Task: inverse folding
């Protein structure tokens, strides 16, 4: 545990339908002792089932849970935003919403990222991976403005460059790197204390 | 020679710094004002979601801050009406989560057959998609004529819409698909007539429906029910208000009455979990047992 103000509590990861391999690669590179709460927001069909959770669980020793309303946010866990809801991050827990899709997406990456920025400020990490839309850009910008860490997959190495390219362009502070390098970088980030998990 | 002044130039000032504590003060003051002046109590709504909706209203009104919105809302009832819509309209569909309706047919309908008369409460019915879905289901199960459905919402405007039974025509494809997967037994198009860009549902579907304004945050129970639907409504409340509403539901259910929640809602994070048993593995259907 570190002193207040140093380190990160939550990491939010955004990608679209084709990003499954990228998310799996990312998770498999994070050690089981990785202390942040990781939330994965992936665009997918509204009727898609719990399969994403098990596909991710195969690749990480961290427990992977599909978010339910008011579920506590715990360090060292991976959370999957459910399909057909927006997932909002509050200090210490999740809230869900069935407000209208944003940019045709529910879950919307922006909605989750914006709430992570507002609730965790400089203790949030935003990660934009491969994706075929510009969702995530606005949220990543907010995380950057609030002093959080912002990381974008190098568009040249992404399966679909639209999402990372838009994010990298709009957020000059973003660290842009290929997936493998990004995983090593994220694994080294300091983790904040657990005192916020009330 | 006159010095030209660029009227477009921004005024000098300190850079905008986000202050979450100040934002919380503004939001709490606004919601307190709304409660004291209009009687709508949003003070215990889930914070991240209400903040998002309030900022959307700030933009919609062409304002710059939550404090400006407070002034507008308090002095202009029309603005309050618009805010109320923002805060209470949720985008849903008919037979949302078809597997839920299938499970309801299989597990709950046989229980309902044992009652001579069935009272069902749709708490937070919004624009009525779920009420019409349930009316259709009960009709097909031969239960409708001994059922009464109470459809309530905090917002008069959405209740009016629900009562009309007109839904966007361009969603009928999706609803038909849902209906079939929910175990529907007829042709979905039997239930509506296309009119302009709307689908007008048969008024006979609401012959046993009572629409009424009810505020889950402040109002009391008004009857005893065999089934309470409250799907994807509690997600907008904070944990304190959720517990209050769970108490209201508990008090309003007959013994062995059924509580139906949304697919990603759980009694697990409430105080009332021990009072119910799960009757479905996959869906959020609970039976009052204590």
Result:
């Amino acid at each position: 545990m570190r002193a207040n103000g140093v380190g990160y509590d939550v990491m939010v990861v955004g990608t679209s339908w084709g990003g499954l391999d990228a998310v799996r690669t990312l998770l498999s590179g994070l050690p089981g002792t990785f202390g942040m709460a990781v939330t994965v927001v992936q665009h997918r069909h509204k009727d898609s089932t719990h399969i994403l959770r098990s596909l991710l669980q195969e690749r990480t020793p961290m427990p992977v849970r599909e978010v339910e309303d008011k579920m506590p946010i715990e360090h060292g866990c991976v959370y999957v935003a459910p399909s057909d809801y927006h997932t909002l991050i509050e200090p210490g827990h999740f809230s869900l919403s069935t407000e209208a899709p944003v940019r045709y997406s529910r879950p919307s990456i922006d909605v989750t990222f914006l709430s992570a920025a507002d609730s965790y400020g400089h203790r949030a990490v935003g990660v934009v991976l491969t994706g075929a839309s510009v969702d995530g850009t606005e949220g990543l910008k907010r995380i950057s403005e609030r002093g959080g860490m912002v990381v974008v997959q190098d568009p040249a190495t992404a399966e679909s460059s639209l999402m990372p390219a838009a994010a990298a362009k709009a957020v000059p502070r973003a660290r842009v790197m290929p997936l493998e390098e990004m995983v090593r970088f994220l694994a080294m980030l300091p983790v904040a204390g657990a005192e916020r998990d009330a | 020679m006159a010095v030209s002044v660029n009227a477009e130039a921004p005024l000098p000032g300190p850079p905008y710094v986000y202050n979450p504590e100040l934002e919380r003060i503004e939001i709490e003051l606004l919601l307190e004002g709304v409660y004291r002046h209009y009687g709508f109590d949003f003070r215990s709504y889930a914070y991240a979601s209400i903040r998002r909706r309030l900022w959307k209203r700030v933009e919609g009104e062409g304002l710059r801050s939550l404090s400006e919105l407070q002034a507008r809302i308090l002095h202009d009832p029309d603005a309050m009406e618009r805010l109320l819509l923002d805060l209470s309209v949720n985008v849903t569909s008919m037979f949302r989560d078809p597997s839920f309706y299938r499970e309801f047919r299989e597990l709950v309908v046989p229980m309902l057959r044992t009652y001579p008369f069935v009272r069902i409460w749709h708490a937070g019915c919004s624009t009525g998609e779920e009420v019409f879905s349930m009316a259709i289901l009960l009709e097909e199960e031969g239960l409708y004529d001994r059922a009464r459905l109470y459809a309530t919402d905090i917002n008069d405007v959405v209740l009016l819409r629900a009562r009309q039974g007109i839904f966007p025509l361009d969603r009928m494809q999706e609803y038909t698909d849902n209906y079939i997967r929910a175990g529907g037994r007829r042709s979905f198009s039997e239930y509506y007539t296309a009119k302009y860009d709307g689908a007008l549902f048969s008024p006979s579907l609401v012959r046993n429906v009572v629409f009424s304004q009810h505020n889950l945050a402040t109002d009391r129970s008004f009857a005893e029910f065999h089934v309470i639907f409250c799907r994807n409504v509690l997600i907008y409340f904070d944990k304190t208000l959720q517990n209050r509403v769970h108490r209201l539901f508990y008090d309003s259910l007959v013994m062995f009455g059924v509580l139906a929640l949304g697919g990603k809602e759980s009694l697990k994070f409430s105080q009332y979990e021990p009072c119910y048993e799960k009757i479905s593995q996959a869906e959020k259907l609970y039976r009052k047992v204590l």
